[in-house]
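Exam prep: given the inputs below (a chain plus 6-O-phosphono-beta-D-fructofuranose), describe the expected output before reading on.
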Amino acid sequence: MANAPLTSDTPVVVVANRLPVDQVSQPDGTAQWRTSPGGLVAALEPVVQATKGTWVGWPGVPDTPLEPFDVDGMRIVPLDLSAEDVADYYEGFSNGTLWPLYHDVTGEPVFERRWWESYCDVNARFARAVDLEASEGAIVWVQDYQLQLVPALLRERRPDLRIGFFDHIPFPGYEIYARLPWRRQVVEGLLGADLVGFQRGGDAANFLRAARGTCGAATRGSVIECGGRQLRAAAFPISVDAAALDELARRPETIQRARTLRHEFGDPETLILGVDRLDYTKGILHRLRAYGELLDDGDLHPPETVLVQVASPSRERVEEYQRLRNEVEVIVGRINGDHSDLGHPAVHYLHQTFPKEEMAALYLAADVLLVTPLRDGMNLVAKEYVACRHDEHGALVLSEFAGAADELRQALLVNPWDIDGTKEAIRRAVAITPQEAARRMRSLRRRVAEFDVHRWANAFLGALAMVAESREG
Ligand code: F6P
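Solution:
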């Protein structure tokens, strides 16, 4: 069955910037492991666990050399980054250059030569760590934009490996990509893989164009020929563990917690929810503007309607993120100042990260989920919401610019740059009949159940095996 959990005999070595667990220091000076944020971890953890594989990555705090250890059925190989590496490779090149560039310049990319050198250096260290860890002929699956040079560096050291790369974020059109001063080197790095996976067909097409434009590669459909080697670039839309989320959301304690949460939010007629990393690509400001105008216009009335906005802390040392946090907090303050009743805020703003049990209860409690990024590789929050709504209630307002919009066609699709259009979609979602909500939700749930994270991993690893076999003759 296509979406049975993976049962590979060959352990998969996942290489990602972050480990699936972060080390966080406690006030008493001790350290504790906590699940890292983001969809990448949620999607890949089951793959590594199912294959009894290894995860190579950074533990989330600088200057903390740690020995490999086992956790939740995975071998964890920590790679230490210094404070300078974090500033230049992670906050700098990854999140100050590539992140805004790849998200269609929703922020201003900074091209800093020192950051690029650090990116090269850290990518080389990741490649060395994998070389030491991977057995003969192992499958190595490199993740995301922070590690785009690893495939070629690894192939140079270890031609025996089967190397896959998956890009979790968008790959931009060539006119945007071509601004990158190191555009050729980055594409050459990716061409070291046997298979390069993207979220959307459009991302794969953009990459094929970049391979032709920067390296003179020849492409035929999804096949790329370059330097006497053949590889493939294609779309593999990532997903969630739909069955596990469905099971979690059906638990009596989750259902009870959802009721309690609604009560704690003042038993509103309509509870609207937003769940994002606090990132400028997520469209939080545009969404708040639309919501604020709906209250100003008298279309929605707190406390009958409340908005709960979860904004989990992210990349807090990067200036753009600090600025965004300030802007979000100003607008939340203004809406609350104008529209809250005593003891009943119009917007509940939670700058926190919650465990998955609490998230499932929040999803069940919410009548409307707003997922309105300006640009997003996939957005797994939208899929998590659908997977949790076994009761077939709830309306999803979804940005056309999220990868998930390709699949979740029964959501209420919006252009998040269009404030009037977003207001209209929120009005429709709030007023939706239970029959229409159920019809849309049934269709969304079928899609997410069928194309789940196991199917994604099987499809990618199956395609990787085929490319690698044809290469090995
Ligand atoms: O999906 C994009 C991504 O950058 C992942 O690579 C990462 O795991 C997640 O978002 C969270 O970002 P960060 O590791 O920078 O906190």
